[in-house]
Specification:
mainly alpha; about 55% helix; DUF7344; ArsR family transcriptional regulator; Arc Repressor Mutant, subunit A; WH-like_DNA-bd_sf; globular; 3-stranded antiparallel beta sheet; single chain
């Protein structure tokens, strides 16, 4: 998977390293974010749409904190790892399918439902 770029930078490879993928998905909130992105039918999603898809995860008293963490903690971590590209100005998130991520999410979901 490669990371898209809005400027002339070279594309950056996503974390194909299993240890990096496991580290990223070890956090429950990042796993929720990546699950939505992985299931999304397009490679780009608007921040508001991601927020709406995750809204069932927000508790009313915690929603502002969750949104702050989404924007200022989790998306930057996923971006730094090369899994997403977040354009804060246009409020869009690019995600290209990563087979390893999909496989790990599938295993986690199957174990959770067992």
């Amino acid at each position: 998977m490669t990371k898209r770029s809005t400027d002339d930078e070279k594309p950056v490879q996503s974390p194909a390293n299993p240890n990096e993928v496991l580290r990223l998905l070890a956090n429950d909130r990042r796993r929720q974010i990546v699950t939505v992105l992985d299931a999304w039918n397009e490679s780009v999603i608007h921040f508001e749409e991601l927020q709406q898809q995750l809204s069932s995860e927000f508790e009313s008293s915690d929603s502002d904190n969750w949104l702050l963490q989404l924007r200022h903690v989790h998306l930057p971590i996923l971006e730094q790892a090369g899994l997403v590209e977040y354009d804060g100005r246009n409020r869009t998130i690019w995600y290209d399918d990563c087979e390893l991520v999909t496989e790990v999410l599938t295993v986690i979901e199957s174990r959770a439902n067992a």
